[in-house]
Amino acid sequence: MGLRSLFTVIILGFCFTVSCQHGLKRYHLRGQVMDKNVATNEITVDHEDIPGFMAAMTMPYKVKDPAVVQEVEPGDKIAADVVTTTDGTDYWLEDVRVTDESGRKSTPPPSPPQRLAVGERVPSLPLVNQDGKTIHLDDFKGRAVLLTFVYTRCPMPNFCPRLSSQFARIHEDLTKTPGLLAKTHLLTVSFDPKYDTAPVLRRYGLAYLDNDASGFAQWDFASAVPSDLRKLANAFGLIYFEQGNQIAHSMDIVLISPQGKIVKYWATEWTIAELEDALKAEATAPPRQTAQAGGLQ
Asked: Number of structural domains, the chain?
């Protein structure tokens, strides 16, 4: 997360202070564990500046050794290595060491949102899209929907810009098959409704649609009032909060069936092909016979 493309001479310069080997780069992290997710092998860390990588912030990290996630607790202070691929497409923590356990009792673990289960109906809360139009998830019934969350000011290339670029690739591929295009929809929801107004979202969306506004017919960029945004994020198990002039957040992509129910989640690991294949398969699958399940209304 947060790596910019670097010329070879700059990469070599980094290797004096950052370990670079076998196509990987290694940075040193110090911070405090705020949360952990054993199911996804992730810990959320409030960390200091990581020179050459990113400013101080709170964010989730995958951990190489699953046993570490079992052992650490919220409140622990840790030191670790952030390992990234040289192209910045993946990153994780290795060699995690607990340096101070005294904060365990004084830092209660946050209560993570209880996301909707696969097969449950999604909430149909009001959203305002890039054209200033109020839309609801119910509007897309009959189409398979791929949904994610970003904010337009996100400075980290491996987070929001990566998600939007991948959705742009999917949109471009779907336009080549009009039959599939009519059965699918992409939806990007902003974490930052105060800044990401309809005009801002329109400019942002056009940047990923090659300035072709006709693409909004199949890909909406939307925001919600803060209370509804919180309900929607909680429904999908997302964590987000303001930190300075940035927003720390977890990542989530949700596949929603044409019947308006949860099909699948992706959190930290996926490929464009995987997302696109799942969307196409859901769009062309026969309706599922599932029990009615309540969502948030």
From this structure: 2
The mean predicted confidence, pLDDT, of the chain is 83
| Distances from the Cα of 89 to the Cα of 13, 36, 161, 171, 271, angstroms | 21, 22, 12, 21, 11
Q: Which residues pair with 134 in a beta bridge?
A: 128
- The answer to whether residues 84 and 131 belong to one domain is no
* pLDDT per residue as tens digits for the range 95-142: 999 999 988 865 555 555 678 999 999 999 999 999 999 999 999 999
Domain that holds residue 87: 8-100
What CATH number should be reported for the domain holding residue 15?
2.40.50.320
Same domain, 67 and 193: no
Residue pLDDT, tens place only, 252-264 = 899 999 999 999 9
